[in-house]
Amino acid sequence: MARSWSELLGEENAQPEPEDERSGRFARLRDSLGKSRRALTQELASAAFDPGNEEDWERLEEALIGGDVGVRATAELIRRLEARPELPDLTEALAEEIAEMFGEPPTLDVSARPALILVVGVNGTGKTTTIGKLAERLRRHGHTVVLGAADTFRAAAEEQLEIWAERAGAHFVGAERGSDPASVAYDAIAAAEREGADVVVVDTAGRLHTQANLMEELAKVRRVIAGRLEGAPHETLLVVDATTGQNGLQQARLFGEAVGVTGVALTKLDGSAKGGIAVAIAYELGLPVKLIGVGETLDDLRPFDPQDFARALVAG
Amino acid sequence: MFDTLSDRLQSALGDLRGRGKLDEEQISRAMREIRLALLEADVNLAVVKQFVAQVRERALGQEVLKSLTPGQQLVKIVNEELTALMGAGASGLAFGRPPTVILLAGLQGSGKTTAAAKLALLLRKEGKKPSVIAADLQRPAAIDQLEQLGKQIQIPVYSEHDTKDPVAVVERGLDRARLDGQDVVIVDTAGRLHVDEELMDELVRVRNAAKPMNVLLVLDAMTGQEAVNVALAFQERIAFDGVLMTKLDGDARGGAALSVKHVTGRPIKFISVGEKVDQLEVFHPDRMASRILGMGDVLSLIERAEAAVEDDEKEEMERRMMKGEFTFDDFLKSYKMLRRMGPVQGILKMIPGLGKQLEGLDQVDEKQMSRVEAIILSMTPQERAVPHVIDGRRRMRIANGSGTSVQQVNQLLEARKQMAKMMKGMGKGKMPDLGQMMADGGAAAPQSAMSTRPGSAGRKKKKRSKARR
Q1: What architecture (CATH level 2) is domain B100-295?
Q2: What digits encode the pLDDT tens for the residues B390-426?
Q3: A171 in any annotated domain
Q4: How far apart are CA A120 and CA A209, in angstroms?
Q5: Among candidates B270, B265, B245, B269, which has minimal Cα distance to B255?
Q6: CA–CA gap between residue B159 and residue B164 (Å, rounded)
């Protein structure tokens, strides 16, 4: 059973995604992932896996590293598999261990009124697009949404978010290019309170995690939000591109230090990338994935389901 | 968090100086370290395996030079092999009968639009007359972004807001460029997944219409193991000539560069090293090899320094420094030179061995440098030339005049003293210890002099966002 939006948003009586819908519009995750994306076990012919054969273990290790899972998380997965007294079905066992690394199915906390979601990440990961789709989802689940365009740096970033706001029927708060991003966040909260909106989503400019002054600017945005609205930001999502390699760990680590990330949105899973970096981030930093992006349409932003994802990664 | 390969090899091999040859077991241990280092740098696994086999062969039976530890000897081999793998020398663009067309393609978010503007600026600096065609009709507001960038750098941008067909836009854009006498035309295309057949077909049509002399794949330096599949797919469909690698100003090792060159045979031609529009550089394989290995980039540093400093300025400065004269006027001048070289962090990272120690130095930012300048500018000409006249009252006045504290002024005075001392030492032929230099004054001066937390600047209500870049 795939995780539903109702479950992710912590609604009462939330049910998993019903089967019939999944086989239709919400087909299995695997179907919406890139067609050329090959499952790990396809690459190592897991049926023939022999736990007594050193070379088979090496092939498994290589397949995991080839999926961007990273050296340390890979070593840990191998260790856990080796520690099993028997290994009748490698595919099943590997999927279990990976799901285990991701921990409990996540929720997105939008219970406060208004709830504030801050969205951060390096350049070009798909922050604005993710926010647009999230706004539409929130609207469908009965929330009124304010979008704050605190990306005041990139040329035309505001226009891009405004187009999404229109599509998702969200209230839009912008500012002039080059103005203070913290003040945009401030204004967005004020607008939400004025309009009685339920959720404020704040978009920020992409920045490389190594740019100390830009990270400080981001920390200031967070401080202003926290000072303006009690308990906010209720969620701080780091948007990570699934094609990212081991640098994703550094992104998660440094954004986490600057603004206290609560979860990851893993985007662009519709390519051939496996998104194994999410496993590394979950294992090394204990940071859960909350959302995944599997395509361009509004329906292609989904709640993250550890078991579904692990199975799709391993078995296809 | 990354150890340099050199450190890793050193600890794996221990000190074997004077032992002659590396034996099989030591080499195996070292190869494992090389393999891990390359994988952590996101070099594709298949490429790593082949590469390691090559290095092993060369390493076996190698004499360990007496002056070098075996680790360094191995690093040298790895560095040479990496450089060779990435292609010798820099490779530029091809130019034909004008207008020469350069087509940019790549995944979403790789940085094509920004790269288009940066490339146009770089070409104009080289005396070309470039323009850009906005053929990304997919991403909302992509055209606006390019138009704004074009306005910013005064480069003509051809765009059509109501057209859905990029081929038509490219054709009309090229007609326009010919009419306007542009000799280079850069075509910015929509980002697309290499597995999206429909959009890849469209890209082929755009390519056929544009008839480019140069097709560049724009690739994010942070790309992981998939870089190989992405590159192969784009190569198959649009046969790109080279790669423009973006976001190398971060701490990504950029192992994807190696993978792509290895599987497609296409060289990296340009690298983007910062968000500012002028931060695009021609690619040098040897420097990239050092980066992947975490060994710094001295050549780029020297090049930038040379570009930033006027010759006569330099001579005068050197002459004075050798004599141990280092007034605040000199201080200000050297600061200005440093700033012309670009963001300080970027410069510091190029110094070998410093990459790792830089964590504490990350705070050296432009704002702090501005504050140092403000303090100096608040001094009288006499104070700048003869710093020892600056007594307590003058310190107070300078602090007030520059909006800083007496303590900060004191720190700067102390930094100047240290630097003057160091310069004198250099004049006498003593090379200063780099670590000491960082700690005492030198490049770290802005930090030690200005230990204010960056956040305190936020108290002043001013246009921060403009100041920040």
Answers
A1: 3-Layer(aba) Sandwich (3.40)
A2: 988 999 999 999 888 898 898 888 888 877 776 666 5
A3: yes
A4: 10
A5: B245
A6: 11
- Domain coordinates of chain B in residue numbers? 5-85, 100-295, 310-467
* Residue contact A71–B247, C-beta within 8 A: no
Residue A197 belongs to domain with CATH number: 3.40.50.300
Per the structure, the complete domain to which residue A233 belongs is given by: 115-304
- The residue that leads in pLDDT, B314 or B375, is B375
Task: Tell me how crowded residue A55 is: count the other CB atoms within 10 A of its CB.
Answer: 8
DSSP A68: T
Query: What is the rounded CA–CA span in Å between residue B361 and residue B373?
Result: 19
Q: Which has the closest alpha carbon to B345: A155, A192, A82, A208?
A: A208
pLDDT at B179 over 90: yes
Report yes or no on A84 lying in a domain: no
Q: Looking at residue B379, what is its pLDDT?
A: 92
Beta carbons of B140 and A164 less than 8 Å apart:
yes
Determine, yes or no, domain membership for A285. yes
A240 - beta bridge partners? A266
**CATH T-level assignment (fold) for domain B5-85:** Four Helix Bundle (Hemerythrin (Met), subunit A) (1.20.120)
Instruction: Give the model's pLDDT for residue B458.
Output: 36
Q: Which residues of B touch A294 (CB under 8 A)?
A: none
Calpha distance B112→A25 (Å, rounded): 33
Which of A129, A186, A204, A211 should we substitute to test contact with B (largest number of B Cβ atoms within 10 Å)? Answer: A211
CB contact A204 to B (< 8 Å): no
Chain A hits for B275, Cβ within 8 Å:
123, 153
Tokens of A169: 């029927």
Instruction: Write the pLDDT tens digit of every residue in A218-237.
Output: 999 999 999 999 999 999 99
- Select the highest-mean-pLDDT range: A274-278, B62-66, B274-278, B287-291: A274-278
Whether the CA torsion A300, A301, A303, A307 is positive or negative: it is positive
Q: Say how many C-beta atoms besides its own lie within 10 A of residue B372's C-beta.
A: 24
How many domains are contained in chain A? Answer: 1
Tell me how close the Cα of B74 comes to any Cα of chain A, in angstroms. 22
Mean pLDDT of A236-264: 95
CATH number of B310-467: 1.10.260.30
Please identify among residues 117-176 of chain A the ones whose CB lies closer than 8 Å to any CB of chain B.
122-126, 152-157, 159-160, 163-164
Residue B50 CB contacts under 8 Å (≥ 6 apart), including other chains: B262
* Prediction ipTM score: 0.83
Tell whether omega for the bond before A233 is within 30 degrees of 0, i.e. cis.
yes
Tell me the pLDDT tens digit for each residue of B320-359: 766 667 788 877 777 776 666 655 556 555 554 444 444 4
Q: How far apart are the first and last CA of chain A?
A: 16
Both ends of chain B: CA-CA distance in Å?
A: 26
Query: Cα–Cα distance between A303 and A290 in angstroms, integer?
Result: 6
Cα–Cα nearest to A142, from A195, A197, A193: A197
In this structure, is residue A80 part of a structural domain? no
Distance in angstroms (rounded) separating the CA atoms of residues A37 and B395: 66
